[in-house]
Amino acid sequence: MRKLLVVFALVALSGCATVNKMESGNQNIGERMTLTLEGAWNHVALPNQGPGQTWTMEGLPVDTLLIYSGLKDGEAIHRPGAGGQKSFNFRATMQPDEIVGLFEGFLALDGSQFQLTKLEPATFGGEKGFHFEYQLVRKLDGVTLSGMGYGTVSKRELFALVYQAPRLTFFSRHKDRVEQIARSARVKT
Amino acid sequence: MKRRRFLAGGCACGAGLIPGLVFGQSDWSAPARFARPDAATDEGGLWAMMDREESRLRRSPFTLRDAQFQAYIQDIACRLGGEHCPDIRVHVMRTPFFNASMAPNGMMQVWTGLLLRVENEAQLAAVLGHEIGHYLSRHSIERLRQARSNSAAAQIMGLFGVVGLVGQLGVAASMMAYSRDHEREADRIGLLLMHKAGYATDEAAKVWRDLQLELKERPDGGSRNPLFSTHPAPEDRQQELAALAATFQGGETNAAEWQKRVQPFLRDWLVEEVKRGQHEETIALLTRLAHDIPSRPEYLVARGETYRLRGASEDLDKALADYKMALAVEGVPAEAYRGLGMIQRLRDQPAEARTNLLRYLELAPQAPDAGMIKSYVEELKS
User: Fold this and answer.
1) Interface ipTM
2) Whether domain A19-187 has CATH 3.40.1000.10
3) Is residue A117 within 8 angstroms of chain B, CB to CB?
């Protein structure tokens, strides 16, 4: 059954998703954010994906880098309907802990366990922002993921990166690379 | 992995409980303990699958590993199960949704979202008794055979589809909803087991009533809940259960013992509940719990947090009121000070904000958000 489902999933994904290479160098993300990459990433475009971009190094669902650029007041952080009974909507007046709570609620929607391990002030995109770290035990398979994120609110819009990967091997393999991307982020004011 | 979900559903699900109906089985008696079926039979195959699932559960990071609490819940199940006790194995799983299920091999799962919601032993016994009722009647075997005769593959894939969408209250019921007759039978048996074990049977209807209160707060009013599409109207079921329970007299709730036992876990379960982001349901739940169990400031603080995170009109005022009420009760969690300080900071009350945030840091120096809170304290100094 497991193999059958994996095949179904692969067929479904191969028919719907497109993968583009994000080359080293400067990349414009949306209208107001640029990132500088040292090494290529895979940008996975899924139909009806929602407001964030999804990048990966190892392939989905092994590791995921979610990138939000200019999410507006009132918009959900996920595709329509993906929040279950209720959307997880960004509000421009949110404090950092509330924004982290949005990601937390969404990532744990299926019963996965999200444990925040750090939330602190940080500069992101050249603006005053925040940095957070977490552990996520995935309900689906019991795998423990490590995660981290950066974010800032500029002109009432949310800019953020959230990266997660299995705690063993994969997270540490790409953590520095993600940190470098976060440091390179610039938000046009 | 999906097979696991099917297996979980193949357990007797139905936390959503509870139809009621004609109670004419006071002469019902439990069957003798079940022997392990021949591995070559369909039932033997299902047992083998459930055994593998149980092995996985034992290793799962979601299992609540507290031997004393585990034994306490197991004991409640044993009181209900009678001579079947040696065959019933309860696994408490850390998942913030209302669910309990039981497999034909005796594996029972109870999720912490259910434990947060019940107010006494009798209410938990109502759910466990219902699940044991399915077990004793071997309903899952009947379902397996029925599914096989109706193109099992199509059904199973359909069930997976539903499961992928949920993760909400009543999730299990959507996966493997029993027929109405099965639910009624499990209810009748569940109430009998409660009564025989000395529990107050009128608590069963309250579980359903309380669940309804939450579901009605959903944006869709609960109308999309699978429980509502496959079962009689919830109001009818609540009334039927209450009518059935009225035929029994006496019984204990063991509320004080229950509250003592869950106290060590309460804060974690509440944090997980608030994190679900389903603010309306959570507020309904916490309003009930804060009213029914006023000695616990944790419920007020959790509701305050929910209001603060929702941030709708007047929510911050409501949050402030909850934090302040909680502070009047002994043993208030540190989060009450953080919540107060955060709101006062937003409202440009720097001195009060700083005092409360410092108090939070004093009480929870290792909190994951300590770095952020310290930065606020510094900012408020200037």
Assistant:
1) 0.89
2) yes
3) yes
